[in-house]
Design a protein that fits this description.
By secondary structure, this protein is α/β, with parallel strands linked by helices. The chain is built from 8 helices and 11 strands.
């Protein structure tokens, strides 16, 4: 789904312990701080950065605000006919990607947001459900479009059945424990089912350039592009591959892509060298032979 960036100015305290990498367990390197003072920690082995996550109360305050879903071509009323055409184009690209790289009909969209993916997926014949942290989403979507939406993190939801496909489109970077989230997704996935993740690419050309400008204080708001406080993690394809391995999932596809509204022939070189803006990866739940 479209990425919505909000700036949070949160107090930093010295009582927060220096974190370890959640993947390789090595100590993270303090790489700097953004323009609000949010610390940036990097794992040089797994190639990602993170910042101390919001508290549960802070996250609830952010996602329960209906205005969080306003802007970026969407609207508070989830009036899809009045969404910007670029939003529809992006969601249809997601669905084309699912058709190319997954199989199955039951689809759970984690962090569904506006629910447009579920609406268009249902039109393509999928059996759809969603989850969202937002009370606004979980109450509005079922009444408006007749799609079940479970409120909360997937670790806290008691699902009644398993799914063929689970999508996390610009969701994993918001979680407090990505490995826990992926492992929980695996638990509610059918055998040979798929998890599809799309996140910002820490190693994109755009991010690399802005990191250098930030490092040398040539940006008025250093590291604003990382959206820290909104994003707890900024991944690379390598870190996503390690994440899948830690969750005992098979990696069946990985690439980087530009957003649909920025894609063009001139951007194909970025995608070829894995320098495009977003990481796309597909995991499969394959049981080991007895």
């Amino acid at each position: 789904m479209p990425v919505i960036v909000q700036t949070l100015r949160l107090p930093m305290t010295s009582s927060i312990p220096e974190p370890d990498c959640f993947l390789c367990k090595r100590s993270l390197r303090l790489a700097g701080a953004d323009f609000t003072g949010k610390k940036i920690y990097k794992c040089d082995v797994c190639n990602y950065v993170m910042t101390p996550a919001l508290t549960n109360d802070e996250a609830s305050e952010l996602y329960d605000n209906p205005e969080y879903f306003d802007g970026w071509g969407c609207n508070l009323e989830f009036d899809y006919d009045h969404f910007d055409p670029s939003v529809h184009r992006q969601v249809n690209e997601y669905l084309d990607f699912l058709k190319a790289h997954t199989k199955g009909k039951s689809l759970l969209d984690v962090g569904t947001g506006s629910g447009l993916l579920l609406r268009l997926a249902r039109e393509r014949g999928y059996q759809v459900e969603g989850t969202d942290l937002s009370k606004h989403v979980s109450e509005t979507l079922p009444a408006k479009v007749g799609i079940p939406v479970h409120q909360g993190a997937i670790e806290d939801i008691a699902f009644e059945h398993k799914y063929d496909i689970i999508t996390m489109l610009h969701v994993l970077e918001h979680t407090t424990d990505p490995l826990s989230t992926i492992k929980r997704a695996k638990e509610i996935l059918n055998d040979r089912g798929f998890i599809v993740v799309v996140v910002p690419n820490y190693l994109s050309l755009d991010t690399r350039l802005k990191n250098v400008l930030s490092q040398f204080k040539l940006k008025s708001r250093p590291y604003k592009h990382l959206a820290l406080g909104h994003h707890n993690f900024v991944f690379s394809l390598k870190s996503l591959e390690i994440l899948g391995q830690r969750a005992s999932l098979r990696i069946v596809h990985g690439e980087t892509r530009q957003p649909a509204w920025r894609a063009g022939s001139s951007h194909q070189l970025l995608q070829h060298y894995q320098l495009a803006t977003w990481c796309w990866i597909v995991y499969q739940n394959v049981s080991e032979p007895q």
